Amino acid sequence: MSSQSQPLHSLHSLADQLSNSDFDSIPIIDLSDASESGTRRQALAGHIRNACLNAGFFYVKNHSVPTETVAGAFQAARDFFDTTSEIKQSVDIGKSDNFRGYMALLTENNVPSNKGELHEAFNLGLDPSLGLAQEGGSAGELQHSENLWPSDQVWKGATGFKQAVLDYYSAVLKLGQVLFPLFALALDLDEHFFDEKTRFPAAIMRLLRYPGIPPEQRDERIPGIGPHTDFECFTILCQDAVGGLQVQNKKGEWIDAPYIPGTFVINIGDQFARWTNDIFVSTPHRVLPPTSTRYSIPYFFGCDHEVPLIPPSTCTSDERPNKYPEIMTAGAYVKSRLDETYTVSKVAA
Ligand SMILES: O=C(O)CCC(=O)C(=O)O
Ligand SMILES: [Fe+2]
């Protein structure tokens, strides 16, 4: 099906109505109908629309990413973070021009008045070996480039690690490509609206490990990850069963986003909020330091770097003029946000 979608309800009136309501839980959306056409697909897009206009967060089930692929990625994360600091330092983010590689504990800080965050990370982007990355890009934009992989010489698990991580990366990339047309329908756009804009998607993935600490040793200024919004269009997050992720509603209350087996958590990022003239909401979230080691894998999905973030016609009106008249490309926007957040690690590198 490719036709311009029929509006589900008036997008603007629903956006106004939902911006005046609040949420105290996060909806679970069944993606079984993602491959359907007609009314079932429209109904699915309607559920996604309500979630994006209200909480900015939802779970998806029946997403078709194989369980073994997810388990393989978590095992790879455990194996990597359990190696030596020498192996981790061999791929330190300080060696990357592009935010790729390993970040040690406390080197990230979403809230400048804090003292760092209690997680370590391994960052990667669209890997050239997948044959999808675009060369070059304009000055000031985020560039596609090589990832930093540990070599076989320093770690005998290196090849298996890369394979498991890229298997997961490719599977979640496909899920992102299933979601973009549904977001288009949710915005009353032709479902192919994003196709040309996501040929070389800015898809940055992170393996995260939060060490467990006893509650009495928690320092308020050292969160697991401090309150923040994500930068890209949307995030596909897989978390283990430990818990600690919380989402802030409009009243300022922190709502738990617990582990639900077999699901991913999807949340809207600032690029989508800006692009949709704030019809989609990008919601603050944080992770409390867990009492036992926690692993998670966020995957940040953006559009091609050179795409200008101009709100589509369905997102503006006389009553809702464009709030962001300064036109930025997606790549320049994300780079400016990464530069702000990653100052700590660059100084430390
Ligand atoms: O670890 C999590 O559950 C959330 C991570 C997160 O919010 C992020 O990396 O942006
Ligand atoms: Fe986040």
UniProtKB/TrEMBL annotation:
Domain (Fe2OG dioxygenase) ranges: 201-303
InterPro entries the record matches: DIOX_N, IPNS-like_FE2OG_OXY, IPNS-like_sf, Iron_ascorbate_oxido_reductase, Oxoglu/Fe-dep_dioxygenase_dom
MF-aspect GO terms: metal ion binding; oxidoreductase activity
Keyword RNA-binding: no
Swiss-Prot/TrEMBL keywords: Iron, Metal-binding, Oxidoreductase
SUPFAM superfamilies (UniProt xref): Clavaminate synthase-like
Lineage top rank: taxon: Eukaryota
Family: Belongs to the iron/ascorbate-dependent oxidoreductase family.
The protein's name in its UniProt record: Fe2OG dioxygenase domain-containing protein
Organism: Naematelia encephala
